[in-house]
Amino acid sequence: xxxxxxxxxxxSPACVGFRKVHGAGNDFIFINGPFEHADLPGLARxxxxxxxxxxxxxxxISTRLSGDPPAYQVRCLNADGSEATMCGxxxxxxxxxxxxxxxxxxxxxxxxxVRHRGQVHGGEVAxxxxxxxxxxxAAVVEDDGQVYEFDAVHTGxxxxxxxxxxxxxxxxxxLGRIVRYHGSFAPAGTNVSFVxxxxxxxxxxxxxxxxxxxxxxxCGSGAVAAVxxxxxxxxxxxxxxxxxxxxxxxxxxxxxxxxxxxxxxxxGPASIVFTxxx
Length: 278
Fold this sequence. Notes:
By secondary structure, the chain is of the alpha+beta class. The protein has helices at residues 40-48, 88-102, 172-180, 220-232, and strands spanning 3-5, 17-23, 26-32, 58-67, 70-78, 106-111, 114-121, 124-130, 135-143, 146-154, 158-163, 191-197, 202-209, 214-216, 241-244, 251-255, 263-269, 271-277.
């Protein structure tokens, strides 16, 4: 595994180890906690900048709370320094690192006060996400003569989902930015997903992520939102739905048998790209 050293401004002159990790293309700078910094949002912005920092969609700090049963406190700061209330791929990466470090294949993770379960089986990592009810047509937006109906669904964070005939034909960056700030989703704003039904049990997706303020290659909570919204519109009825993202590393979303209709498992690959010190 390659290693690197990145020079940046820390509160202390001591170096801190990190891993560059990604979950289905959604990439993070991972630090084992406890870790404190006088300006954590500023550090996240500096480190996540792709031209002058390490480059990532977010900075993640995972602190072990207990070993039996294994539990972790996971914080995820977006590339703009804001703190995420839910990030499915960050949680999957945290579970992957817990398995690599301690052999924990089943873990509890707490993000923004919400408890999630994680499982690691071979190269597949799955975590739970809770979904609220779907608000149909929460916003209607016209762009270049095309009308888009956006459904709102909360999967630990706000999501707006619209269904299109061809995701490749959508200007996800431009339209996503418009909808992210749409008055219907004020004041918090929203993540924005464009979803194409692509056969039985298959959805194609592109997501503009709030906090990254750009289209990302993958979004775990967005994949759950897409499936929940598709079920509400009767566009899919399969138990397990494959969500194909721009990374080419699909995620699978399936209901949790213990809480069908409320809790979902989102699973897919996760990888440690390289290690280094900051």
